[in-house]
Amino acid sequence: MTRVVYVNGRYLPYAQAGVNVEDRGFQFADAIYEVCEINGGRLVDETRHMERLERSLDALRIAMPMSRRALGLVLREVVRRNRVTTGLLYLQVTRGVAPRDFPFPGDDVAPTVVCLARRVDDAKRAARASAGIAVKTMPDIRWGRCDIKTVMLLPAVLAKEAAAEDGAQEAWLVDSDGFVTEGASSNAWIVDRSGSLVTRPTGNAILPGVTRRTLLDLLSREKIPLLERAFSVDEALSAREAFITSASGTVMPVVAINKVPIGNGHPGELTLRLRSIFHQVAELSH
Ligand code: PMP
Fold first, then answer.
1. Model's pTM, two decimal places?
2. Over the stretch 182-200, which tens digit does the pLDDT of each residue have?
3. CATH number of the domain that 98 lies in?
4. How far is CA 53 from CA 3, 105, 190, 201, 222, in A?
5. Best substitution site from 207, 217, 244, 250 to test ligand 1's pocket, by max atoms within 8 Å of Cβ?
6. Ligand 1 mean position to 187 CA, how many Å?
7. Residue nearest ligand 1's atom 3 by CA
C-alpha cells in the first residue's frame, strides 16, 4: 500500500510530496505542530488537540489555515487513506513560503499544511509499558515559551540523543533551580510518599500536554489526590512511582532515573492502573 501525505490541499504519495525550500518552517522553524493518537482508527482527544493548535497559531500570529471542521475532514481522510488503526497523526502548520527574511511576510502568504499518519506497533508499545522506561536528566536549555508547540525541537533532539546514548528512552529536562520541567517529548509525573500524584503546573516552562489534561480529568473522577507543583530530581529519585504522559505513549511507567531504580524498579501499581483506564475518559472522534 502506498502511504500518502497531505500537503496544501493534495493527498500525495511520499515520493511525490515536498515542501518549498523557502518554507519558513524549514528556514526558521517558524511553525507549529500537533501529534494525536489514533486508536481503533479514531482520533483521541481531537478537540483538545485542535484547541491547542489554535492557541499555538494565535501565539505566533499564524492564521488558522482552514476552518476547524475542514481540518477535521483532512485529518480523517489522512487516517482513512493510510488505513491506520493504531498509530499517530502528525500535523504541521508553517507560516508559509517567502524569500528568506526574518520579519513576517505579507498577509498574502498562505500557511503550509502537512498532515501524515503512521502506524505504531501496539505489541511493542505494550512491552515497553510493562517493562517501564529509563530516563536521563539533562539541563533544560529551551526558550521561554515552551507552552507553544513549535517545531523548534533541537534541544529535545540533543537531550533525547544523550538519553539514548545512555540507554534511556526519555530525557527529563531540569531547570536552573534543580526542578524537573518536563520530558523532552512528554510531561513528567511522580507519585510522592503520601501517594499523591505530582506534576508541574502549566505555564511558560512546559507544554500543556493534552494527555496531561485528560489524565487530570481521570484523577478527579477516581478521586486520586493531585499536587500541581514542581518537584526536584532528588524528590523524583526517592518517589514511589514515576511516569510520563504523551499522545504517543499515553501513560508510560518510568522505572529508572539516571540509572537509579524508582520504587521497586518495576512499573508502579497506580501508574499501570491509570494506563489501563486512560481511554475511559479520553474523547474518541467519530
Ligand atoms: N511536553 C513536550 C515538550 C512534548 O513534546 C509533548 C509531546 N508532544 C508533551 C509534553 C506531551 O503532550 P501531549 O500529551 O499533548 O502529547
1. 0.98
2. 999 999 999 999 999 999 9
3. 3.30.470.10
4. 24, 21, 27, 20, 29
5. 207
6. 6
7. 185
